[in-house]
Specification:
With about 325 residues, the chain is α/β, with parallel strands linked by helices. It folds into 2 domains: about 130 residues, no CATH class; about 130 residues, no CATH class. The protein has 10 helices and 9 strands. The strands form 2 sheets. Strands 1, 3, 4, 5, 6, 7 and 8 form a 7-stranded mixed β-sheet that branches. Strands 2-9 form a two-stranded parallel ribbon. A hairpin with a 6-residue loop joins strand 6 and strand 7. The longest helix has about 35 residues. The protein is elongated and about 100 Å long.
Amino acid sequence: MGESRDESREPEEVVERPVPDLQLEVLADLGMPLDQRAVGYETDEAVWQAIADGEEVAIVDGFTVESGGFGEEYDFKISTIGPDDKVFEPFPLEIHDPATGTTREAQVIGVTGYGASNTFLGIFLPDTVFREVFGEPEQSWHFASVKDPGKSKEIAQDIESTLFAAGVQAESLKARAEAENALFRNFFYLMQAFMSLGLLVGIAAVGVIAFRTVVERRQHIGMLRAIGYKRSTVALSFLLESSFVTLLAIFSAISLAIWLSYFLISSDDFQTQNAGYHVPWLQIAAFAIFTYVASLLMTLIPARQAASIPTAEALRYE
């Protein structure tokens, strides 16, 4: 294992697998996206077609561009391709089987996208090149696309039940990915639930503060009424006060959240190839509007209560 060098273009020695018992057959029309392509290949379909035509070419997963390619067991990295390079010059990659000592070179012409690389780790070779290096496989994986991804699990069960006598086992990649990500997804759902609970408690606190303000400022309200303030003006003053506190809280919360998220995404531990920073402004605006309207509704009742206090009663000393 080693990094490829730009100066000499020496081929890399890659141990694809310790035991020759696995073959990956990739359909040219599977539609797996590529983040980077070699010079001379204008589309992703052209790269996959070269694999299907049996040319001496190879496609590697997206994690090889930085580190961790071919899985945690290998941690393979290619320095010939930069993370920001959309097009690169083809370079040789040496495929080696340690069991038989067979070696073959293939030109790397494509790098799969990060989303696909999470499921399809490793190196993709034409069937003829694979057999020349590793021999006849004992097991084959066939990947097929479906028109309705939502029914992929049912389709996999139908394929397995139909071809059970032949020893075929089928699995939905979508269902497997969802199962693998279930822990992280549930953790984020739990965090969202805690944040939502905090938001509801904060909105309720605004109403509690408004009720306490009415009770503690009865004489102040009476003085305003005595010098000529109308009931609507008194109620409006409470609404404006509550709006100022709510808007200040919304603005500070959004600013701190964006700053913290950008700090995390831009850190070295979270950086990934072609990963941009995106702020969901529409969702943020929806939550902000909901929070503001809910706080006004919570303040409306105490504001009306403050406006209805008789002047003589409000000015009475207790």
